[in-house]
Amino acid sequence: MVDKLANTLRLTAVDERASKAGLYKGMALTDARAQFEHLDIAFASPRKDAALLDSIADWCDRYTPLVAIDEPHGIILDMTGCIHLFGDEISLLKDMHKRLHQRGMIVRSALATSAAAARALARYSPGGIFSENDQEPGLFALPLHSLEIEESHLAGLKRAGLRSVGDVVILPRAALTARFGARLVNRLDALFGRASEPISPRRIVPFCMVERRLAEPLIVMDAVEQILLSLSEELFRCLQQRVEGAREVEASFFRADGNVRRISIQTGRPITGTKTLLRLLKERLSTLSDPLDAGYGFDILRLAAVRTERSQAIQKSLDNRAQETEEINTLVDRLSIRLGNARVLRAVPADTHIPERAVSLEPAVKAKQNSPLEWVADHHLANPPERPIRLFEPPERIDAIFELPDAAPAQFVWRRVRHTIVLAEGPERIAPEWWREHAGALTRDYYRLEDSSGKRFWVFREGLHERGNPNPRWYLHGLFA
Questions:
Q1: In contact, 263 and 292? CB cutoff 8 Å
Q2: Which InterPro entries has this protein been placed in (predicted)?
Q3: Using CA atoms, how far apart are residues 135 and 132, in angstroms rounded to an integer?
Q4: pTM for the model
Q5: Distances from the Cα of 85 to the Cαs of 81, 88, 312, 325, in angstroms?
Q6: Domain regions of the chain by residue span
Q7: Fold type of domain 111-203
Q8: Residue-level pLDDT at 468
Q9: At a CB cut-off of 8 Å and minimum separation 6, what does 72 contact?
């Protein structure tokens, strides 16, 4: 493999035959061709390599949900609690190597008690399974460059006559830190389990997950639906023990040829029933631009609750309001699946006293349940609202006539129509948010006005007379129903 490094074509990877012939990574292409005139080369493609690594990492989800990318060509799997699904460690590695070899890949792996030790043993040793007893001797035998420290520090260790990790780890820690820095000591602590280096999974670890591993790949979609029905029952039994419902469920389909297809379903409320989940799943499958294809068959089917929320028992009300709310939530879920989450929005209250910022729009399936807006709506059933539901964005300018500078307007002209005020309430003073607004933002005084024809308006005066603003502007911000 060849790539351009510092304006020079150099070897970035060599196969086993080239390595035995004396070629090495970083060697100039001209030097390599001086030794072998007919050299078979291929130009490196980091993007394609990263895409291939991502697809392999997706495929590795069949072994554990904790999968992390170890750039540039490694993958780290946390197999804690998963090995028994494959019998033992030997069976697990045999299955992994066999499947990857069938796809033309050469793999070297190591199974150790920590991610740092497994990574080093896989990269700089023949690999294998290392128990707690034989892991330390394997680490002692690793070469110095397995420490992955700066070249200057690596050269210093070699000048001191050190040749392996075992030669370094027995030296006093204080002397190593003073001479080579803290990175070397931290690296040694990670390799020998004295410090943990947690991995960062590339996917969200689900709260609850159920799966079915099939002895023979499954092609018939009717049978797939039956398995999904069984899995959903298991999933909701698991969530029921936690007194939770699923807000986001991910269905994963692992094909026998290594392809993995995932379908995510998000809901506007926590669901706890199998029928609801299957109905939404069918709805989602029917809207896919690329239909689900079994290919050579699915050998693993999985359902995972990625996002959950505490569920509450719903008491049916006498006026059927609870039933109507349930029907609306079901409609929201179906529309979100068909049209996309970004096209079905729900108003969510914001923590601000500025009227035009008091409500924001979020995807309905992501908005939290029991929002303060629902309480506000119920509260206003018995009392007239203090603010209108409909606001103009931006507020519309009006020409106001008032008797006193700080009083409500007696008349105003809006859209070339004059309104004579017979009733006024206010003011409600709202100061600007100084941490958001510009330096010239002014205080507002809001009034609720009713004209001679019974129409009600919400207007405000921008600026105060006593603060040196002789001609404050008036705006109409909203209309009451």
A1: yes
A2: DNA/RNA_pol_sf (IPR043502), SulA_CellDiv_inhibitor (IPR050356), UmuC (IPR001126)
A3: 5
A4: 0.68
A5: 9, 8, 34, 43
A6: 2-44, 59-107, 111-203, 208-335, 390-479
A7: DNA polymerase; domain 1 (1.10.150)
A8: 66
A9: 46, 49, 53
